[in-house]
Amino acid sequence: METPSDRVPWAERIEQLLAEEGPLPIVAAGHPVLRRATVPYDGQLDDALLARFVRALRVTMRAAPGVGLAAPQVGVGLRIAVIEDPAPVPEEVRAARGREPQPFRVLVNPVYEAVGPERAAFFEGCLSVPGYQAVVARHAAVRLTGQDEHGQALDEEFTGWPARIVQHETDHLDGTLYLDRAELRSLSCNAAAARYWGQPTAEEAARALGFDLP
């Protein structure tokens, strides 16, 4: 359903959004923008405004804090996302989850496809579904194509936790939340997840809560 704001040019909408200093407000599940497929980015913003928007996404992601943020999460239905993961985790978690540090990067019009049949399942959360986590089985390796903020082609293979991040953020751009792919028997508030399911893998949670892993 179209709203009055949908008829406002993208540049004007984003100028309004950036009028306030500091992190942008993150919209939560239930907001319609999170359930709509985004509009492909094809130069709706001039270079300076795009750079300002990217900086705002970066500031907001870091302040949350998170390891990725898609434009719909700040109310903007353009196919743009950012990711960054310093991976400050213990070695056993890094090894089990394949969580390697990822530099800051911008994903414009990203699309992913599976590389091989292997899937991996771990607890996952979302800044737009605050307070909860659930186990999600995702492709263990993906090929991501698209562009960066300068229009340079992106064609890269991601594995482990970085593959999970790019799938999660690209899903946002298709109107999909992680809960749509989650094993709902695993759904846990953050406090319960920390108390019971802090292990590097989800195997103990699967046994105790009664769900299958791939």
Automatic annotation (TrEMBL):
Top-level division of the source organism's lineage: Bacteria
Cofactor binding note: Binds 1 Fe(2+) ion.
UniProt keyword annotations, A-Z: Hydrolase, Iron, Metal-binding, Protein biosynthesis
Enzyme Commission designation: 3.5.1.88
Active-site feature positions: 169
Pfam families reported in the protein's UniProt record: Pep_deformylase
Cofactor(s) in the UniProt record: Fe(2+)
Role, per record: Removes the formyl group from the N-terminal Met of newly synthesized proteins. Requires at least a dipeptide for an efficient rate of reaction. N-terminal L-methionine is a prerequisite for activity but the enzyme has broad specificity at other positions.
Entry protein name: Peptide deformylase
Organism annotation: Streptomyces griseorubens
Lineage: Bacteria, Bacillati, Actinomycetota, Actinomycetes, Kitasatosporales
Gene that encodes the chain: def
